[in-house]
Amino acid sequence: MRKKISIKYDEIQDIVVGEVPTYPKYTTQILNLANQNSQGTRARVVGQMSDLIQEFDGTTIEEWIEWYEERYPTAREKASYKINDMVDKLKSAINKIDHEMIETWVEDLVLYKTFIGLRFQEAIIKKVADMKGLTYRLATKEEESQGIDGYIGYIPVSIKPHTYRSKASLAEEITVKLIYYEKKKSGITVEY
């Protein structure tokens, strides 16, 4: 009989490295955000870590530190500088946040972004229809129950995320034209 166990990250650290630094509450969240925004630990700054750890033939943390710092002697300093600069920018931004800004942000998130997120199917159908020089309409509730999201001209269409294609056994059978989308940082990529 096979057994499953769980090993918490803290326990892995204790086993592999030993004692690691601790940080005051919330500080690592801010540091992670600053690092993400500044790209302080990207491969061009600190090296491609997944490749480097494969090249490393030692076994201890001390050996790893020595091996890494021989190859990237200024990487930690460069990364720290980039992150520190971003932390300063975040401090400045935090001081600009007041209750009124928070209320506006909550309104934008809860009302506008939610509405847009739930209604982007219409934007996709309209855009494709416009590109084809056709009219469009959204599906009725009855049509939605049949897997139809709308019509481009007289053709029924269903809007699905790009990951839908890779699902091996789909519970529903869709007999209409499929339009796939992928959410990107700047908008939606559509394939039809």
What does this structure look like?
This protein has 192 residues and is an alpha+beta fold. The protein folds into two domains: 9-96, no CATH class; 119-191, no CATH class. The chain contains eight helices and five strands; from the N terminus they run αααααααβαββββ. It has helices spanning 9-16, 27-38, 43-46, 49-55, 61-71, 75-96, 99-132, 141-144; strands at 136-138, 150-152, 155-161, 177-183, 188-191. Helix 2 crosses helix 6 (75-96). The model has no long low-confidence stretch (mean pLDDT 89).
Structural class: alpha+beta
Question: How far from one another are the termini?
Answer: 48 Å
Task: List segments where confidence is low: pLDDT < 50 over at least 5 consecutive residues.
Answer: none
Radius of gyration: 25 Å
Strand content: 5-15%
Order of SSEs: HHHHHHHEHEEEE
How many beta-strand elements?
5
Number of domains: 2
Strand order of the largest sheet: 1-2-3-4-5
Helix content: 40-55%
- Integer average pLDDT: 89
